[in-house]
Amino acid sequence: MKLDPSILARVQFAFTVSFHIIFPTMSIGLASFLAVIEALWLKTKNPTYLQIYRFWLNIFAMGFGIGVVTGIVLSFEFGLGFARFSQMAGPAIGPLIALEVLTAFFLEAGFLGIMLFGLHRVGPRLHFFATCMVAGGTLLSASWILSANSWMQTPAGVAIHDGQLTVVNWLHVLMNPSWPYRLSHMLTAAYLTASFMVAGVGAWYLLRGKHQDFARRTVALGTAFATVLIAGQVFIGDIVYGTMLKYQPSKMQAAEGFWEKQSQSPAPYYWFIIPDQKEQRNRFTLGTPYLGSIWLTHSLKGRVEGLKNTPRELQPRMAMVFYAFRIMYCLAMLMFAMGIASLWLRFRGKLFNSRWFLWMLVFMTPSGIIATLAGWYVGETGRQPWVIFGVLKTVDAVSPVPSQALLSTLIAFVCVYAVFITAFLIFTFRIIRRGPVDAPVYAEASGSIKNAFRPHVLDNPKRLADSQFL
Amino acid sequence: MKTSNVLLRVLGVTAALLGVLFFFIIVGVFGLPLAIAGLAVFVLGAVVVFRAFPTEGARL
What we know:
By secondary structure, chain A is mainly alpha-helical. Chain A has helices at 5-44, 47-81, 83-117, 119-122, 124-153, 170-174, 179-208, 212-247, 249-256, 291-297, 318-348, 355-363, 367-383, 394-397, 403-438, 449-452, 455-458, 462-466; strands at 158-161, 164-167, 269-276, 281-288, 386-388, 392-393. In chain A, the strands form 3 sheets. A two-stranded antiparallel sheet of chain A has the order 1-2. Chain A has a two-stranded antiparallel ribbon with strand order 3-4. Chain B is flat and about 45 Å long. Chain B has 2 helices and no strands. Chain B has one domain (3-52). The chains are: A mainly alpha, B mainly alpha. The A-B interface holds A 206, 212, 216-217, 219-220, 224, 227-228, 231-232, 234-235, 237-238, 242, 294-295, 298, 333, 336-337, 339-340, 343-344, 346-353 and B 8, 12, 15-16, 18-19, 22-24, 26-31, 35-36, 39, 42-43, 45-47, 49-50, 53, 55-56, 58, 60.
């Protein structure tokens, strides 16, 4: 069997980047959540906030570690699978990725040690500063990487001479047309992810009748953050949609499931389609009449542009883009509905004893991660067949390496990442099952990491009573 | 059915309809200026509800 290196390179990068993005999404959101919780603890001196901090710090630390490791792999993959892309786009992309790595390692990793082990050694205020630096570091890291990725979506500030790209305006490269909107969209997605995770775990404890104070506060905080954030996310999402419609119309044409140059009037909003890319038509459609015109053209009878407006050889695969977009959008609507429901239940004083709502929160725990992944699939599959939109096609960006090399490394990545995700899930579920009461509320660092992990330091219940911070 | 229950149901349906209306406004169906205003009203309204109905003291 002959395997196509360009397909293998794409599958490998898609797999590794999909795996990677889960962890930065969690760590960006959780870092800011931890900063808020520590600020509340410093302000109120309520030990429950410290308990919440310690509980989520453990999960954050694991996610952060896996995020950093799997992120490094991606940089190497540029060389392994996409050497021609690196060769051409290196002058623009290279410095941005270098800055991302510098931010991640120097700011985040530097202060992470203090955040994890330094509460007793540096005092609560300086510790809070360290938490803020880690949260700020994750935000800066995301800014650089989103700048690089957005430049691939909407390239600007460069000139091409003899197939070699040179930067003519760094500010235009950095602040390319889609960057501010895509960055806001991604950051809000990360904060939403953390909000639903926190609320979901709290809801689980409430349903089990355990850790009531911890659970109430996390459900109250998680749903409050989620309600405000999802409204902002829906707003930003619409701006991102408009921006991409301007710069990458083919992506949004594929996302809406219409083929003809102009849809019928009024246009329906499709929820389910069976697209036939070869025949350039849908075999089956299921939609809501008028809604397409209302949502997409903001009029009752507006027509929507279809994928035939883009030459066939430059079209993305409709099925991938359409369903990724629908998953993201449907989850956003569900999140919005949950926000409204949480406001109603607060008003009625039933936020903690509506079992249907608590169960929904539990099921929605990974919703942010799924929506973020779906959003990235829209972004990346919708950009195809380009790797740098309008500049370099993906098929021309692949390294001249034998397919066996790509296949063997793909298998290796799958095996190693299976171990990572298994370990992460086992330890996370163990932390959740153990619960915050049994978790160390106050762990003293001794200056030695080895000693800090010893059971008598981590789990000495006397420290609960002795702690000067409680 | 008690009058208070009917009233609560009516209020619940109104809240749901308001939610749908806010969603349509915020996604820009009525234009960008209204979307910004809708977002501001929604966020302020949510903050008012958070402050007026604190949840920590609620009984299970």
